[in-house]
Amino acid sequence: xxxxxxxxxxxxxxxxxxxxxxxxxxxxxxxxxxxxxxxxxxxxxxxxxxxxxxxxxxxxxxxxxxxxxxxxxxxxxxxxxxxxxxxxxxxxxxxxxxxxxxxxxxxxxxxxxxxxxxxxxxxxxxxxxxxxxxxxxxxxxxxxxxxxxxxxxxxxxxxxxxxxxxxxxxxxxxxxxxxxxxxxxxxxxxxxxxxxxxxxxxxxxxxxxxxxxxxxxxxxxxxxxxxxxxxxxxxxxxxxxxxxxxxxxxxxxxxxxxxxxxxxxxxxxxxxxxxxxxxxxxxxxxxxxxxxxxxxxxxxxxxxxxxxxxxxxxxxxxxxxxxxxxxxxxxxxxxxxxxxxxxxxxxxxxxxxxxxxxxxxxxxxxxxxxxxxxxxxxxxxxxxxxxxxxxxxxxxxxxxxxxxxxxxxxxxxxxxxxxxxxxx
Length: 424
Description:
- This protein is of the alpha+beta class.
- The strands form 4 sheets. The protein has a 7-stranded mixed beta sheet. Strands 1, 4, 17, 18, 19 and 20 form a 6-stranded mixed beta sheet that branches.
- The chain has helices at about 10-20, 20-30, 35, 65-70, 95-100, 105-130, 235, 260-265, 280-290, 305-315; strands spanning about 40, 50-55, 75-85, 85-95, 140, 150, 165-170, 185-190, 195-200, 215, 265-270, 300, 320-330, 330-345, 350-355, 360-365, 370-375, 380, 390-395, 400-410, 420.
- It is built from 10 helices and 21 strands.
């Protein structure tokens, strides 16, 4: 690729050539099976969009005509008023770097690739994590905070959600306001194996911080009950069932009217299900979902839980692979594949898929075709100016800026066709 004389126009051309829409989507979906597999709709226009879910067929049947006629009652439906959530990833490159690369196309391409790759990676991580969240953007919980710059996490595996220079805010949970007026801690180190994060100041500098406090990236959560991120599986299929008088207002609807059909199945390893293995939990959920008339076909779980499942199955283990097409509009432009473990259950055959964003102690059994990701345009796209350029001159600094965005939300057309099992 020849850039000719160096200019902002040629810089933008290089970005478009190196990072086509197809490549961006391929990089976004790589290592994010839940995000890759969900059906995409790119026509989410208007301020919001209403999703109608039928959860009761209505009355008016029976062996006797008079009774059937007398008992007529209309079908019951729920209207979810779904709104979009935006997620950005922005990178900047100074003009000195661009100018010093004049005559050295390789150096400029390397500079572009470094910034664009990290921008895509950042958005990929955020969207992948959001697929399993409740929309609050919670990325972990605090364990035993003290006068130390080491932030210990309740779940060590959550360390994958943290990165250098990330600014963190804290709240008692995702229904409370931020601690200390939204004061932040900045990440300056991580211990991947130990599951701890190092910050630039003592954790105790956040006034009121306590054990089990929720952690968020700054701006993803700003006030009590915020849902600024995509509302993922954890929102549509929460661990706790909505109850009458509980104040549930999920996209404007109280799901207590029919907690299972409007918010999915849920079981925990307590009572009758204490000591359940992963295989038993999968079979339990598939039995109930199948009994309801659905055919679950996949199970999302963490890598560690899949490894434990393989050990459980022993000689019965069956490996498989699922391939997902990547489409631009109606045209397939690429594909990604994921290795799976197959289990035969009373509700049908399911593919167990590891996803790095799935909670360590939770599995989600799902009927894939009940889920859709609604977005305004392509799932992830460059923000272009009026001329179509993907780069722009920074007004307040000597350099250029690249911007990526995703605008949309996840929807479930039949929550009762899905379920979760949580281990404590």
